[in-house]
Design brief:
Layout: H1 2-5, E1 8-19, E2 26-37, E3 41-45, H2 52-59, E4 67-72, E5 75-76, H3 81-87, E6 88-90, H4 103-113, H5 118-131, H6 147-157, E7 167-171, H7 179-194, E8 198-203, H8 206-212, E9 215-220, E10 223-228, H9 230-237, E11 240-246, H10 249-256, E12 261-263, E13 268-273, H11 277-287, E14 294-301, H12 304-311
Parallel strand pairs: 3-8, 3-9, 6-7, 7-8
Antiparallel strand pairs: 1-2, 1-4, 4-5, 9-10, 11-13, 11-14, 12-13
Helix pairs in contact: 4-5, 6-7, 9-12
Bound molecules: adenosine-5'-triphosphate and magnesium ion.
Adenosine-5'-triphosphate (ATP) is lined by residues 19, 28, 46, 48-54, 204.
Length: 322
């Protein structure tokens, strides 16, 4: 329980997990650690197969790690599994949303199942429908809901029990949503955290991690590649990038080795810079002394895309050939 006293709601150390036969299995987590404070929104960011879902499933007690330890809401995920389950909500868990029932009926039913009286279940459903902007659709069957409405109903379903869970695991909560629905869902997640809930979400969207998370763990091939605030991660790459559109393949090859961004199709290279006029001017003079090799240029602030590419394995594939 000490963790909770310290306000660490999710804590994992050295998680490993392999699938397949011992000896010939595939290791999908290789010593992952994690720490999320109460009220935090933490993103697990990584490419397909990085181990994001596996990590969430271990923390949510749906599977066990081969080694390592984890505590959620102060409880050990193995020894205190039942208590952990009561303290968390996991999206996807409520694939139990019944498509043929209305949103309202779904929530009332779940509230009843979690032990509320009829009257309280009705009130709780109404409150959640309003909070998740589903009041207008409350009396429609869930199968008529759009993707975004469906995700909100899933989240609401995770909240019907009383008291509300303190820790939310959201595995790719906005995959497949249009930009507007995604923004709406982000707001829902921010509201949850604003009420003191702790959120661990997985995402492949760099923008999502940047917008929503106060801390990010970059996972790559089962290993923690980096951890920090979005700003910290961005500053690791370099503050800014000068993109040069080069006039020839020869120039591209000459400069490719020092670039942090490569686009051979368009003969574009991005060079790190601090973004000051003096440095940009010096870079242009140095890379193109005769003023014939650079056709155009543009200046970019580093994005999480740059971080992601620099930190995950794709970087070894940075093309130096055209
Ligand atoms: N039950 C299983 N049996 C065998 N291999 C598995 C199993 N579950 C996951 N894996 C493998 O473990 C690796 C990590 O999977 P995981 O689902 O954790 O990745 P992820 O980061 O969530 O990826 P995605 O972005 O595609 O959702 C993958 O190579 C996957 O094929
Ligand atoms: Mg996954």
């Amino acid at each position: 329980m000490n963790d909770v006293a310290n306000d660490v709601m999710i804590e994992a150390h050295g998680l490993t997990k392999s699938y397949g036969k011992p000896g010939s299995g595939v290791r999908v987590l290789d010593g992952v650690g994690l720490r999320v404070a109460r009220g935090g929104i933490h993103a697990l960011l990584g490419p397909n197969g990085a181990g994001k879902t596996t990590t969430v499933r271990i923390l949510a007690t749906l599977t066990t790690a081969d080694s390592g330890t984890a505590r959620v809401a102060g409880y050990d995920v193995v020894a205190d599994r039942r208590r952990v389950r009561r303290a968390i909500s996991l999206t996807g868990q409520f694939a139990a949303v019944d498509e043929t029932l209305t949103g309202e009926e779904n929530l009332r039913m779940m509230a009843r199942l979690s032990g509320l009286t009829r009257t309280r279940a009705r009130a709780r459903a109404e409150e959640l429908l309003a909070r998740f902007d589903l009041a207008d659709a409350a009396r429609r069957q869930a199968r008529t809901y759009s993707g975004g409405m469906r995700r909100r109903l899933d989240l609401a379903a995770g909240l019907v029990g009383s008291p509300e869970p303190g820790v939310f695991f959201l595995d790719e909560p906005t995959t497949g949503l249009d930009p507007r629905s995604r923004r709406q869902l982000w707001q829902v997640v921010r509201d949850l955290a604003g009420r003191g809930a702790t959120v661990l979400l997985t995402t492949q969207y760099l923008e999502e991690a940047d917008q929503l998370a106060d801390r990010i763990t970059v996972l790559d091939k089962g290993v923690r590649a980096a951890e920090g605030t979005p700003e910290e991660l961005k500053s690791r790459v370099s503050g800014h990038r000068l993109d040069l559109v080069l006039s020839s393949r020869e120039t591209y090859l000459r400069l490719a080795g020092r670039a942090v961004h490569h686009s051979p199709e368009t003969l574009t290279l991005g060079l790190p810079t601090d973004g000051t006029a003096a440095h940009v001017r010096a870079l242009l003079d140095e890379t193109d002394p005769h003023r014939t090799d650079v056709d155009r240029f543009s200046l970019h602030s580093a994005t999480l895309d740059d971080v992601f590419l620099a930190l995950t394995t794709e970087k070894t594939e940075a093309p130096t050939h055209v």
